[in-house]
Specification:
The chain has 294 residues and is an all-beta fold. 0% of the residues lie in helices and 47% in strands. The protein has a 9-stranded parallel sheet, with no helix packed on it. The N and C termini lie far apart (48 Å).
């Protein structure tokens, strides 16, 4: 492709030609035809490869509203699967005894005001950018909102309660995967969510009410309430430069029983203005801290 194939405002995917786990979805901010230069509207982050291809994506402009999804009518692994989607809105739907939503290689989508009851991976986001997940209700779920390789996303005002697996269920999770050469999960905001009774944890498993994992960086976790989980807010495996502020993480119990924990090479994180009280773990784990940094 050349610069003449694109226009300002086009939705595009920036993809490394080799060794690519993910791409960057964004918008063309400016085109300089004289110098053959394209400027993208995005934050900087690391991506593998020395040469790249730029792929134009047409907006989907799809609205999914007011539907009920049940296991008896589900025909795939997910009730809604969004692939290579742009401007897809999923709003005011009910997911009952079903699998929920998968979004992959998509951006500028909205998932809002939906109800999830007795679902599996309720909202699973993979390789997405600028997705908004807002004001949804989750109850009796295997997992709530799980995100891998995500950039610039907003997770706000969601209510997540009662994990189906008391050992392993997770409320909200952001990760870049175990391959630490990637750090796409950056510049996301997790704010004003309520996460309670998701898990109590077992030895070696502490997903937490809110969980940042594997190289998740420059994220904001602010003004959330995390109660009665194994760990309220948990950062592990090279999570750096994140801000954890103004959260309430109390009454967390079970195996570990920690309010906020940073573990395994979590450098340069800012933890300020949080309330952590009455967290109590097992005698075997010997933790029971309101805040723990290791």
């Amino acid at each position: 492709s050349s610069v003449t194939d694109f226009n300002t405002g086009d939705y595009v995917r920036l993809q490394a030609r080799t060794n690519a786990v993910y791409g960057l979805h964004t918008i063309i901010k400016n085109i300089d035809t004289i110098n053959k230069k394209i400027t993208l509207l995005t934050n900087d982050y690391k991506i593998d490869g020395t040469t790249f291809k730029l792929i134009k994506i047409n907006p989907s402009n799809i609205l999914i509203e007011g539907l009920t999804f049940e296991k008896s009518v589900t025909t795939s692994n997910k009730d809604i699967r969004i692939s290579d989607g742009v401007n897809v809105t999923v709003i005011n739907n009910n997911f009952e005894n079903s699998e929920g939503i998968l979004a992959e290689r998509s951006f500028y989508c909205n998932i809002e005001h939906n109800n999830f009851s007795n679902t599996g991976d309720s909202c699973f986001m993979y390789d997405v950018d600028y997705i908004r997940i807002r004001n949804n209700f989750y109850d009796k779920i295997q997992h709530g909102i799980r995100c891998a390789y995500v950039n610039g996303c907003l997770i706000e005002g969601n209510n997540l309660t009662n994990g189906k697996d008391s050992n392993y269920s997770v409320g909200i999770e952001i990760t870049s995967g175990a391959d630490l050469s990637h750090d796409k999960s950056c510049y996301n905001k997790i704010i004003k969510n309520y996460v309670a009774n998701m898990n109590v944890g077992v030895m070696g498993s502490a997903n937490g009410g809110i969980h940042l994992n594997f190289n998740s960086r420059n994220n904001l976790v602010d003004s959330n309430t995390c109660l009665y989980n194994g760990i309220g807010i948990y950062l592990e495996n090279y999570c750096k430069n994140n801000t954890i502020s103004n959260n309430t993480s109390s009454y967390n119990y079970g195996y570990y029983g920690v309010g906020i924990e940073v573990d395994w090479n979590g450098d340069n994180n800012t933890i300020i203005g949080n309330t952590c009280e009455y967290n109590n773990g097992s005698i075997e784990a010997d933790e029971s801290f309101n805040q723990e940094l290791r």
